[in-house]
Design brief:
By secondary structure, the protein is an alpha/beta fold. The chain has one domain: Aldolase class I (TIM Barrel, Alpha-Beta Barrel), CATH 3.20.20.70. It contains ten helices and nine strands. The strands form two sheets. Strands 5-4-3-2-1-9 form a six-stranded parallel sheet, with helices on both faces. A three-stranded parallel sheet has the order 6-7-8. Helix 7 links the parallel strand 7 and strand 8. Helix 2 packs parallel to helix 10. The longest helix has 13 residues. Bound molecules: 3-phosphoglyceric acid (3PG). The site of 3-phosphoglyceric acid (3PG) has 9 residues, from strand 9.
């Protein structure tokens, strides 16, 4: 599963964190992200549309890689798996969720914000984590500090990543990709302004080259 996460993060480079505000948004939203250059998506279970959105994307956009985010427990993991999610992201680590994901065919990128979280995951074999909330729990300085005691661990920092700090995060040797929602402005989505989602996505992707 470490290899699966490595390959999906290498392909993604930026993982857009999507909270679907209206069911009708999902396809235009995903198409705008894809047109801007992002084809690996994380659909969160923060809104009631999350599972439906995952099902819709898997059926209608099989060329995209669709993960599920904000998975908090074993039940949400099972629901996301049944909906067709291809990978799983959580904001933090619990022994219950880490264990459940070991029994699932899906790879889990667990959230971690402290050395203790990393030790909990490490003890169960996890080596790839979402640093969350990245800016709040120390940002680049935290990543550099974790590199010492955890040399085999790599991160997807998420939470406060923006165009202004994206390149600095990506330059860290223990960063494999970053996540964020800055290209998905809630007002733009409510207006159906998919061109702005596409433009912000394209601008973010251009920062990586
Ligand atoms: C998440 O929970 O992963 C965040 O909502 C993404 O963080 P951001 O909104 O600060 O980009």
């Amino acid at each position: 599963k470490i290899a699966a996460l490595d390959s999906l993060c290498a392909q993604a480079r930026i993982l857009p964190v999507i909270t679907v505000r209206q069911a009708a948004h999902i396809l235009p939203l995903a198409d705008a992200l894809a047109a801007g250059g992002l084809r690996t998506l994380e659909v969160t279970l923060r809104s009631s549309h999350g599972l439906t959105a995952i099902r819709t994307l898997r059926r209608e956009r099989p060329q995209l890689c669709v993960g599920v985010g904000t998975v908090l427990d074993r039940t949400m993991l099972a629901e996301a798996e049944a909906a067709g999610a291809q990978f799983v992201v959580s904001p933090g680590c619990t022994a219950e969720l880490l264990q459940a994901a070991l029994e699932s065919p899906l790879p889990l990128l667990p959230g971690a914000g402290s050395a203790s979280d990393l030790m909990l995951g490490h003890g169960l074999g996890y080596r790839r984590f979402k640093l969350f909330p990245a800016e709040v729990c120390g940002g680049v300085a935290a990543l550099q500090a974790f590199a010492g005691p955890f040399p085999g661990i790599r991160f997807c920092p998420t939470g406060g990543v923006r165009p202004g700090n994206l390149r600095e995060y990506m330059a860290q040797p223990n960063v494999m990709c970053v996540g964020g929602s800055w290209m998905l402005d809630a007002e733009a989505m409510d207006r159906g302004d998919w061109a702005s989602v596409e433009r912000l996505t394209r601008e973010a992707v251009a920062l990586l080259d």
